[in-house]
Amino acid sequence: FQISGYLNLLANTIDNFTHGLAVAASFLVSRKVGFLTTMAILLHEIPHEVGDFAILLRAGFDRWSAAKMQLSTALGGILGACFAICAQSPKGAGETVAWILPFTSGGFLYIALVNVVPDLLEEKNPWNSLQQILLLCTGITVMVLLALT
């Protein structure tokens, strides 16, 4: 029963590693991009961490152990940021972010679509499907508008 908790911790550590990569690489681009990326990841992480905490409780961890384990997965983010900074090319930050940002963005899009599209296909109520599609489009529009400013 606890194996699902440990698998969740491993996945969360890897997820946090990619978040660290994205945050550090985006700050290499500019402060504005760095702050926007950080805010986007924070908005994503708050419900994500609450859900992971619930998974750990369900897997048999007590509250204190679950909290400590969740905190330990945050080290993945620090390692990801350190990796991005250490991977800086001597030719400049442009070459570093040329592979880090597409890698992390692609990962985020893949995970989002793998989670969202099957739910959309199984949804019986067309109004709920339309709402989800509109919210996806709203998110894309916000990203485009932030990129243009």
From TrEMBL:
Pfam families on file: Zip
Principal subcellular localisation of the protein: membrane
TM spans (from-to): 69-87, 99-117, 129-148
UniProt keyword list: Ion transport, Membrane, Transmembrane, Transmembrane helix, Transport, Zinc, Zinc transport
Lineage: superkingdom: Eukaryota
Family recorded in the similarity comment: Belongs to the ZIP transporter (TC 2.A.5) family.
PANTHER family xref list: ZINC TRANSPORTER SLC39A7 HISTIDINE-RICH MEMBRANE PROTEIN KE4, ZINC TRANSPORTER ZIP13
Catalysed reaction, written as an equation: Zn(2+)(in) = Zn(2+)(out)
Compartments (UniProt record): Membrane
Record-level GO cellular component terms: membrane
One function term, GO molecular function aspect: zinc ion transmembrane transporter activity
Membrane topology: Multi-pass membrane protein
InterPro entries registered for this protein in UniProt: ZIP
Protein name: Zinc transporter ZIP13
GO biological process: intracellular zinc ion homeostasis
